[in-house]
Amino acid sequence: MAEASPLRYVALGDSQTEGLGDGDDTTGLRGCADRLAERLVLHHPGVLYANLAVRGRLAGQVREGQLAPALALCPDLATVVAGVNDLLRPRFDPDETAAHLEAMFAALTGAGARVATVTFPDIGRLVPLARPLGSRVTALNARIRLAADRHGVALADTARHPVVTDPRLWSEDRLHASPRGHALIAASVAHALGLPGADDSWTRPLPGPGAAPRTVAGELRWANAFLSPWLARRVRGRSSGTDRTAKRPALLPVSPAA
After folding, report:
1. What angle do CA 80, 129, 162 make, to 5 degrees?
2. Which residues make Cβ contacts (< 8 Å) with residue 56, sequence separation at least 6?
3. Is 68 exposed, middle or buried (0-12, 13-18, 19+ CB in 10 A)?
4. What is d(CA 49, CA 10) in angstroms, rounded to the nearest whole number?
5. What is the reported pTM?
6. Phi, psi for 250 (deg, rounded to 5)
7. What are the tens digits of pLDDT across the range 180-213?
8. C-alpha dist (Å) from residue 161 to 27, 127, 165, 182, 220
9. Rounded distance between C-alpha atoms, residue 170 and residue 167, angstroms
């Protein structure tokens, strides 16, 4: 009897899927998609994994630059996570952003792939200056839920669980998950997909004392270190992903986590 072909997993998205906040550009990025692939290989020996994500990409750019290469890899499983960069733009349109996501859901599921996605936490709970964006997050999440339901996409509805805004799950810039946060995202998607051993433990509050209260001095340091460079890129019309390409464009074997 011929051996079954190895499972092929392709990740599409922006910086979260690329892995920012979990490692660095010198030592290498890990991230939630890598962590999900490491979980997959425990139950699908020989799994092949590609990560097409590039930081800074808008949902339309993910669709334009990553969907065709993803389809060419004939994935059995795909994750599509994008939209946060759209939320931060002045002319954000939730219908337009969701339409790009839904087009990717439709194309990938139509090609026979199992697809998974996530909803997003209210970033205003992480960045006080971003509190006016709360309604945008709510609007986009509502559309993601509807699109996922229409196309049979597995949804890790992280937005419904307060734990996802615990500061311990976020890196210093407050826009990218920390290693612990990336592990939680991977666990949430594994649970949504019904992987063996996955459960809802990721939804529970983190144990131990919470993060230290924020101070005015700390907020000023954060603004100088992260907000100012971000604004400067916007003024210059540049993105953190300018001139960058996918970190793992080909399907390659996955090693279990050490």
Report:
1. 55
2. 14, 15, 85, 239, 240, 241, 242, 244
3. exposed
4. 6
5. 0.89
6. -110, 155
7. 999 999 999 999 999 999 999 999 999 876 665 6
8. 32, 18, 8, 15, 29
9. 5
